[in-house]
Structure formats: C-alpha cells, structure tokens
C-alpha cells in the first residue's frame, strides 16, 4: 500500500473525521513542501474516486457537494504550511450559464468540484450575455471557459458566445467545455466547443487533463 492510500481512500469514502485526523497528525510533523504536495495529490486522487463512484451511481449530487467541502477543508489546512507556494492554483476557469438560461445547480456543483481540485474559478452567474463572457475572458485571461445550460435554447446561446470569443480574437487562447443535458457530441461540434459533459466530476477530469 502506498504511503497515502489511506488518505485517498478516506476522501473517496467521504470519511471527513478520518481525513482531518490524518491531516492534523501530518501537519504536526512539520513536513517539507514535497511531502505536503504528495498529500495534496493524494487528496485529489480521493476526489477522483468520488467522481468514479458518482458515475457508477453509488453516490448522488449531495455526495459530490459534500466531497468538495471535505477537500476544501483539507486544502485549507495544508496550504498555510507550504514554505513555497507549490500549491499554486491548477489553472483558471471562467464559468457561467449562457444567455436565456437561469439554471445554476449543475454549474455550482462543477464550481465546487473544480475549486476543490485546485482551479481558480470565476463564476459570472446565470443568463450571461456574449459580451459578459468576452469582457471577463479579457479581464481574467482564463485557461478554460465553461458554459452551462439546461434549456435547448441554450445551445444557440453557447454558439453565439463561442462566435463572440472568436470575433474578439480570444478563442485560440482558451479551451471551452460545455455542460448541460441538451449538449451532445453533435451539439458540441456545432457550437464549437472543445469538450462537453453532463457530469461535473468528468468535467473536472477533462479540465485537469487540459492543464497537464
């Protein structure tokens, strides 16, 4: 068994008290930055297990939200003891629900999981115009733009947003991931996205793959 498999398993099993017990004991050893980073990686592996459990139907939406809270608590404990900021954010994600759609549950779950996975997430909210996305991309210069929508009308809004980013000369500098039940492989190609998902855990995995 690898050194931190127990921690990975505890996060994957949503055992909050066990996770914090392991981490508090670890922090008390005055670990090196390398050791802290190893523990952070083990935490992220645990989160991947949560995502796998969700995909199998063993976990539900509430479990995903709780796992994000546990991981955030874990990282908040670890980051202050890093002497060098090797825990720097994985990357930047700009996130928003497109114009004409007011749904945000899926977006918020993805936001929670992406933040817990180390991403710096900028959430511009619901019913966001093309201009709102374009202006925020210019401002924060994200690595990834996530567009969410549940209504079928959101598909055209997503396409307009991607077209707007192209017209602004910003499209080539970012990856675009689309989320929501209406989004299919064909719709993603039509809209001009790089990937799509209806699963927050899978979405985070895709984003981590892009940054690596």
From TrEMBL:
Highest taxon of the lineage: Bacteria
Annotated source species: Clostridium aceticum
Biological process, per Gene Ontology: homocysteine metabolic process; tetrahydrofolate metabolic process
InterPro entries the record matches: Cbl-bd_cap (IPR003759), Cobalamin-bd (IPR006158), Cobalamin-bd_sf (IPR036724), Met_Synthase/Corrinoid (IPR050554), Meth_synthase_dom (IPR036594)
Name of protein: Putative cobalamin binding protein
Gene3D superfamilies, per database record: Cobalamin-binding domain (3.40.50.280), Methionine synthase domain (1.10.1240.10)
GO MF terms, alphabetically ordered: cobalamin binding; metal ion binding; methionine synthase activity
Gene Ontology CC: one annotated term: cytosol
Annotated TM spans: none
Cross-referenced Pfam families: B12-binding, B12-binding_2
């Amino acid at each position: 068994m690898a050194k931190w498999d127990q921690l990975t398993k505890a996060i994957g099993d949503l055992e909050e008290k066990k996770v914090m017990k392991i981490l508090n004991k670890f922090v008390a050893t005055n670990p090196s930055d390398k050791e802290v980073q190893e523990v952070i990686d083990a935490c992220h592996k645990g989160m991947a297990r949560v995502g796998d459990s969700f995909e199998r139907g063993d976990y539900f939406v509430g479990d995903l939200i709780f796992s994000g809270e546990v991981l955030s608590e874990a990282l908040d404990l670890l980051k202050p003891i890093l002497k060098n900021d090797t825990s720097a954010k994985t990357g930047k994600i700009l996130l928003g629900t497109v114009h004409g759609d007011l749904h945000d549950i899926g977006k918020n779950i993805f936001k929670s999981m992406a933040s817990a996975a180390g991403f710096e997430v900028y959430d511009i909210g619901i019913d966001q115009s093309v201009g709102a996305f374009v202006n925020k991309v210019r401002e924060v210069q994200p690595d990834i733009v996530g567009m969410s929508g549940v209504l079928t009308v959101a598909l055209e809004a997503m396409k307009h947003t991607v077209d707007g980013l192209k017209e602004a000369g910003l499209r080539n500098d970012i990856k675009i991931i689309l989320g929501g039940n209406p989004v299919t492989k064909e719709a993603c190609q039509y809209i001009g996205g790089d990937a799509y998902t209806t699963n927050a855990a899978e979405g985070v995995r895709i984003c981590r793959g892009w940054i690596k």
